[in-house]
Amino acid sequence: MAPPSSTSSSRPVPLILSLLLLACTANADHLTVGYYDKTCPGVQDIVRSVMASRVAADRTMAPALLRLFFHDCFVNGCDASVLLDATPYSDSEKDAKPNQRSLRGFDVVDAIKSRLERACPATVSCSDILALASRDAVALLGGPSWSVQLGRKDSRGASRAAAERGLPKARDGLANLTAAFRKHGLDARDMAALSGAHTIGVARCRNFRDRVYGEGAAAGNIDPVFAEWRRRTCQSGDDALAPLDEQTPMTFDNAYYRDLVAGRGLLTSDQALYGGGRGPLDRLVEMYTTDANAFARDFAGAMVKMGRIPPPQGMQMEVRLVCNKVN
């Protein structure tokens, strides 16, 4: 974009330039629950309305939106960078290996943004939309709700390389998982609770093949009947899908942890949380199996904490008018 002319000091500042001037605004220091109370008081109702409609039509949209928020926050903070398309001048996090052919729900975000632009033009950031939509996704499938802190801005860039490096991997063991979460200020309890997001959704065989065939670090601590059943799933190919929680795959509850105790965690990174009664997180996992309220409380608190992961210092920020491209 060409720089604005400086020949007239009385000329109104264009809307786009005004948005770009938000680049110096901190993205996490001033988050508040009531951030839009005056500028867009209906924001939560609009997000909830669109989410309810889309999830009613397709329940798989709930885990999809929750996953989008995770994959956004773990790459350069909660800045909606995961929503940006590639351009001739910049890459896209959508093209990173952990995200290829696995991220969905972009059309839901676009629908929410379109409604909000009509109601409150150039006001609500795409990153705040993701934070609200992920909360509603959980609640719509029977999980907890929480007060979402708002006031994030959207980044003007994305990093495919950072997404390749920074996202936890399906084959990660406990040490790598703990390090990945600690990097963002999330402790072991946060990690164990946030992993409970896998109580909804599905995974492709390519991401659990090593576990059910007992390869490398995935060998051991797996129920043999479960392993055989999932090997049959993989006979249909690497893209064959299996539920992350085999008991209640579309209900947000604590059944995921019961699967772990039974040696039925689908991914290596899931089962890594439970060491058969000898691991550092085993007591916490066992508590979640019997105390659904404790899991719900810890999950909600960890989501708020994750939602405060800031972008790197100096990153250019704005409120995007369209979520898949910069202004």
Task: Give structural notes.
- The chain has 327 residues and is mostly helical.
- It has 2 domains: 163 residues, Peroxidase, domain 1, CATH 1.10.520; 121 residues, Peroxidase, domain 2.
- Helices cover 43% and strands 3% of the residues.
- It contains 14 helices and 4 strands.
- The strands form 2 sheets. It has a two-stranded antiparallel ribbon with strand order 1-4. It has a two-stranded antiparallel sheet with strand order 2-3.
- Helix 8 packs across helix 14.
- The chain starts with 14 loop residues before the first helix and ends in a 9-residue tail after the last strand.
- 40% of the residues are buried.
- The N terminus is likely disordered.
Brief account:
The protein has 327 residues and is mainly alpha-helical. It folds into two domains: 163 residues, Peroxidase, domain 1 (Orthogonal Bundle), CATH 1.10.520; 121 residues, Orthogonal Bundle (Peroxidase, domain 2), CATH 1.10.420.10.
What would CATH call the architecture of the largest domain? Orthogonal Bundle
Mean model confidence by pLDDT: 91
Oligomer: single chain
How do the helices and strands follow one another from N- to C-terminus?
Answer: HHHHHEHHHEHHEHHHHE
Q: Give the total of domains.
A: 2
- Can you count the helices? 14
The CATH class name of the largest domain reads Mainly Alpha
Uncertain stretches = 1-26
Q: Strands of the biggest beta sheet: in what spatial order?
A: 1-4
Cα distance spanning the termini: 10 Å
CATH topology type of the largest domain: Peroxidase, domain 1
Instruction: Name the shape in a single word.
Output: globular
Number of beta-strand segments? 4
- The radius of gyration computed from the alpha-carbon positions, rounded to a whole number of angstroms, is 21 Å
Q: What composes the largest sheet?
A: 2 strands, antiparallel
Helix content: 40-55%
Structural class by helix and strand composition: mainly alpha
Task: Give the amount of beta strand, in percent.
Answer: under 5%
